[in-house]
């Protein structure tokens, strides 16, 4: 269902990307990054969708938690391989979630 | 390509949704909302992807621009039909984009 997050404020990393045709372990690494992110302090949840572009949003308790994950060695290696092989382009946006609204059909 | 946005700060609305099987004009209305949003003051750009869940992120210059669009009459009607027919659940998150990073393969 819809990813559950606490009351704002919390933080979001919006990762928008355009893939190359290269596989070379992409799926495995993407799964591993989700698994590894989930083990980091301050991680909340992640959600993804892809058609022409991919949008992955991960949610975190603080900017410090995002910075810590950014510096993780295995994540850094994956990002470098991403630049070399998997992506034509990507943009990472670091955001503070100020308000949110949930709708669930009863 | 990747949606272009100005130097931060700017604002993002992350709309995460789970669709019902009901069509009833969904695609037309979704296209119309993108067209209409693009005409609003303070609109920057929008990007979307959908698999099991849909993620649409629209970018805006200010919270006031987001609030203005939220109150637009045709948008309000579309949101009400969305609640009745098109979505099991959705979550809207209003965010301030504090930093961003672009990668483009040369």
From TrEMBL, chains A, B:
User: Which residue positions does the secretion signal occupy?
Assistant: none
**So which domain of life are we looking at?**
Bacteria
* Gene Ontology MF annotations: monooxygenase activity
InterPro entries assigned to the protein according to its UniProt record, in alphabetical order: ABM_dom, Dimeric_a/b-barrel, Jasmonate_Hydroxylase-like
Give the UniProt keywords, A-Z.
Answer: Monooxygenase, Oxidoreductase
Pfam families (alphabetical): ABM
Q: Where is the ABM domain?
A: 10-80
Indicate what this protein is called per its UniProt record: Antibiotic biosynthesis monooxygenase
Organism of this sequence: Hymenobacter telluris
